[in-house]
Amino acid sequence: QVHLVESGGGSVQAGGSLTLTCVATGSSVSSYCLAWFRQVPGQEREGVAAIDSDGSSGYADSVKGRFTISRDNAKNTVVLQMNSLQPEDTAMYYCAAGNTNGASLSASSYKYWGQGTQVTVSS
User: Fold this and answer.
1) Around Cβ 26, how many Cβ atoms within 10 Å?
2) d(Cα 103, Cα 122) in Å, to the nearest integer?
3) 21-50, pLDDT tens digit by residue?
């Protein structure tokens, strides 16, 4: 069983940066694909970035060039560096882990989920 806990959310002004961190406990996630999703109330959960066990990554078009995902298998963590934040990035951000081929941005590919951390960007 994998337990995921996110941190690093908060409120920033447009153009600012935040770093989200997700720590996994209970089992090593070194062989898992790790990802970040976000969700706005009333909307579907959206895949933001994912990184596979081999280090290959994928991003939603809306965040390419602004967000960077990385992982540290020794620390069982995945980090999302978010730069040039915009009001439309406001959402609850979730960390996820799962056995999937490639850096999937589909929520159905992930078995384990964190509780989320809120990101609010003001204009």
Assistant:
1) 11
2) 30
3) 999 999 999 999 999 999 999 999 999 999
